[in-house]
Sequence to fold (100 residues):
Amino acid sequence: MSLSLDTVIVTTSPYTMNKDDTLFLVNRNSPSSIILPNLNSGEKGKSFYIKDASGTSTTNPITITAPSSKTINGVSFAMLNGSYSHIQLAYDGTNWLTIA
Fold:
């Protein structure tokens, strides 16, 4: 069995995610801003995995922001601030939910 993930190495900030990619590895030595794509209701179930690949988010946090008036668990952003931390987000057709 094989698993194919469309992977992006994020080295710039702010970075707006492409809805066709799945795995985002943030490799920066300074604070980072990641902006989720603006999905429509027909894209319900789309998920993204974001990871601190550099291991520096304790001192260089990664802020993940929902677009427009959308939210992540009811708020406008989520933050990774622990070494090698990660988050998985799923779109419910209206807003984003953390699932891992």
Observations:
- The beta strands are 7-10, 15-16, 23-26, 32-35, 47-52, 62-65, 77-80, 86-91, 96-98.
- The first strand starts at residue 7 and ends at 10.
- The CA atoms of residues 6 and 21 lie 5 Å apart.
